[in-house]
Amino acid sequence: MTDYEKDTLRAYRSAQRAGEYKRYNSSDWSWGRFVTWLEQRAIARELSRYDWTEADRLLDIPCGTGILGPILHRFPFRITACDISPEMMVLARSEYPQDRLETCTQGDITKTPFPRQSFACVVTLGFLHRVPLEIKRETIREIAALSTKLVIASCSVDTKFQRFKHSLLKKLRPSHIPAPCPMDMDSLRAEFAAQGLRVVRAFMVAPPFSAHAVFALEK
Ligand SMILES: C[S@@+](CC[C@H](N)C(=O)[O-])C[C@H]1O[C@@H](n2cnc3c(N)ncnc32)[C@H](O)[C@@H]1O
Predict the structure, then answer these.
(1) Angle at the Cα of 19 (from 72 to 165), degrees rounded to 5?
(2) What is the pLDDT of residues 22-60, one digit of tens each?
(3) Which residues' Cβ are closer than 6 Å to ligand 1?
(4) Residue 123 is inside which H or E element, if any?
(5) What DSSP element (H or E) covers 210?
(6) CA of 169 to the centre of ligand 1 (A)
(7) Cα of 86 to ligand 1 centre, how many Å?
(8) pLDDT higher for 67 or 1?
(9) Residue 4's Cα: distance from chain center in Å?
(10) CA of 69 to the centre of ligand 1 (A)
């Protein structure tokens, strides 16, 4: 059982944790940086399938330290970044195209302050696999309500192979911590469908090594 408030909601509320997160995912020679790079490539490819214009708004939530930022320089979106942690957002701002970053604002993904249907595209990375089912549902309901066209979400997927891999890694390296709340593909599809989101593409980012999957969802 994961403790959502301790492990996710409040876990990133320090400058030290934010700095460590950013280094592990974007500058260290780490597995996290490699998977992040693959994920960025995959998301850029998904975004490239559509004709976006300067009228389109994109919401990056939770934006964390702005991992999505670098790829948005290639697209014309007006951008909103949002996270519960101001400490993470401090490190995110500089990643986005500065002339198109409309706001970087603190908010809870389960009950955001944004008007319904105000974003052509909503991107939710690295969050769903951290939270229990009830929060997954509230999150999917919220991001579906905010978007008009496309939602891109990532989530670690639960499979027999990934469980075996994690138990092996735990023996080899006791500090190994897998995503606390992965979900199997079919259940994720059902949760998305329940909120009116159709899975148009779903793929693993680095099969079979990483459990990380990306979903492109249309309204
Ligand atoms: C693992 S990080 C992922 C960040 C970023 N999307 C990425 O891929 O690097 C999880 C983020 O979720 C944020 N967070 C946790 N609970 C939240 C909530 N209820 N609403 C908004 N952000 C939340 C944390 O502050 C943290 O920045």
Answers:
(1) 85
(2) 999 998 888 889 989 999 999 999 999 999 999 999 999
(3) 8-9, 12, 25, 62-64, 67, 83-85, 88, 108-110, 125-127
(4) strand 119-124
(5) none
(6) 25
(7) 11
(8) 67
(9) 16
(10) 15
Q: What are the phi and psi torsion angles at 209 (to 5°)?
A: -70, -40
**How many angstroms does the Cα of residue 179 sit away from the middle of ligand 1?**
13
Q: How would you label 26-52 residue by residue, b for 16+ Cβ within 10 Å and e otherwise?
A: beeeeeeeebbebbbebbeebbeeeeb
Element (H, E) at 65: none
Low-confidence winner among 26-40, 52-66, 79-93, 106-120 (lowest mean pLDDT): 26-40
pTM to 2 decimal places? 0.95
Burial-class residue 133 by CB neighbours within 10 Å (0-12, 13-18, 19+): exposed
Could you tell me the CA-to-CA distances from 161 to 132, 165, 167, 168, 173 in Å, in that order?
Answer: 21, 6, 10, 11, 18
91, 22 Cβ separation under 8 angstroms:
yes
Pick from 98, 106, 108, 88: which is nearest to 24 by CA?
88
For each of the domains in the chain, give its residue range(s) and CATH number, in order of start. 4-218 (3.40.50.150)
Question: How confident is residue 100, by pLDDT bands cut at 50, 70 and 90?
Answer: very high
Q: Which amino acid is at 208?
A: P
| Torsional sign, CA 83, 87, 93, 95 | negative
- Rg of the chain over Cα atoms, rounded to whole angstroms, equals 16
185-210 per-position pLDDT tens digit:
999 999 999 999 999 999 999 888 88
